[in-house]
């Protein structure tokens, strides 16, 4: 545990860097910086001629390969350390699977080309890989504070558990619409109008204004659902503050991260897509989705019997 915890945190940070670099590649139009060759750049290990787009694209590939190796090492290491823990095994396998799959999807796009809809999935799989490794790092950190090296699920009603899982799934779909906005170049589809879209009220799915407006409506519903979820968690927390403290903190974190994500999106519109603000937008999305996945991990699967903890530990140990 002495070296596993910092290595897991470093790997999660590396995956976050990949997400940002991927967004940077899209924002700067560097997808073709290395031509249609992969994994090398224009068929060369060390490109003899490099433009800014080449540097951005090739550095993204190199960092992705190095971090991918770190993910594999972390998965094997964590699996051996927590041999009988199903959550660790699931997160380890998920991290490796999604980092490999998104890499292959990116390679296919370079060599054969892909539609904007398919390329939007590239960001989605990167997000799933980041969330898996980030949760694994949190889990390892929490386990280091307990004697049993395992954590228990927090007993909640099946209705609340389904709501948390449902919001996580819905959020992933909303993230996909955001990635589709980016890949279709629809960031300024509504001009400098926000939160409405000028004279447009209903998305038409074909124009840039419709694509942008669809994402805004979906994000607005996500904010409403998140606020309702936090209200439900607060009710539980007031009755049993010790048991639900980490759910309470994670719920508040999710709401504030989503608000910041919305504000950063508005700032992108008002400033005509400034690069730093766009990267902040992606940052808040990653953190928000990971917070929701953490809630899913703590309440367990919806079909599990209520009130029967599967693991031993202190549910209030996190988010301190």
Give a description of the structure.
Helices cover 68% and strands 0% of the residues. It has helices spanning 4-27, 52-81, 86-111, 116-143, 158-183, 208-239, 245-270, 275-299. It folds into 2 domains: 1-150, no CATH class; 152-320, no CATH class. The two termini are 19 Å apart. Helix 4 crosses helix 8 and helix 6 (208-239) packs antiparallel against helix 7 (245-270). The chain has 320 residues and is mainly alpha-helical.
Write the topology of this structure.
Layout: H1 4-27, H2 52-81, H3 86-111, H4 116-143, H5 158-183, H6 208-239, H7 245-270, H8 275-299
Helix pairs in contact: 1-2, 1-4, 1-8, 2-3, 3-4, 4-5, 4-8, 5-6, 5-8, 6-7, 7-8
Count of separate DSSP helical elements: 8
Tally of distinct domains: 2
- How much of the sequence is in beta strands? under 5%
Q: What is the 3D form?
A: flat
User: Which segments are poorly predicted (pLDDT under 50) over 5 or more consecutive residues?
Assistant: 306-320
Entry summary:
The protein is mostly helical and 320 residues long. It contains eight helices and no strands. Helix 2 packs antiparallel against helix 3 and helix 3 packs antiparallel against helix 4 (116-143).
């Amino acid at each position: 545990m002495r070296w596993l915890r910092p290595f897991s945190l470093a790997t999660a940070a590396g995956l976050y860097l990949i997400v940002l670099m991927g967004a940077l590649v899209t924002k700067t139009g560097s997808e073709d910086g290395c031509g249609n060759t992969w994994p090398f750049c224009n068929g060369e290990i060390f490109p003899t001629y490099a433009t800014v787009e080449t540097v951005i694209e090739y550095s993204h590939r190199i960092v992705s390969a190095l971090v991918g190796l770190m993910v594999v090492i972390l998965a094997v290491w964590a699996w051996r350390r927590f041999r009988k823990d199903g959550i660790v095994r699931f997160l380890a396998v998920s991290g490796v699977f999604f980092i490999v799959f998104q890499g292959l999807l990116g390679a296919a796009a370079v060599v054969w080309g892909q539609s904007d809809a398919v390329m939007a999935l590239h960001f989605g799989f990167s997000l799933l890989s980041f969330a898996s490794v980030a949760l694994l790092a949190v889990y390892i950190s929490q386990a280091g504070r307990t004697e049993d090296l395992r954590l228990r699920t927090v007993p909640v009603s099946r209705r609340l558990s389904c709501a948390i899982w449902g919001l996580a799934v819905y959020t992933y779909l909303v993230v996909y619409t955001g990635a589709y906005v980016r890949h279709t170049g629809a960031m300024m589809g509504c001009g400098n109008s926000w939160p409405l879209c000028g004279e447009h009220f209903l998305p038409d799915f074909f124009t840039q204004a419709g694509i942008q407006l669809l994402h805004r409506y979906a994000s607005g519903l996500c904010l409403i659902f998140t606020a309702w979820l936090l209200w439900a968690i607060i009710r539980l927390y007031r009755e049993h503050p010790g048991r639900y403290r980490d759910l309470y903190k994670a719920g508040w974190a999710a709401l504030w991260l989503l608000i910041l994500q919305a504000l950063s999106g508005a700032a992108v519109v008002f400033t005509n897509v400034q690069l730093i603000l766009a990267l902040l937008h992606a940052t808040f999305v990653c953190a928000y989705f990971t917070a929701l996945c953490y809630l899913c991990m703590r309440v367990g699967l919806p079909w599990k019997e209520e009130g029967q903890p599967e693991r031993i530990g202190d549910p209030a140990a996190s988010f301190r």
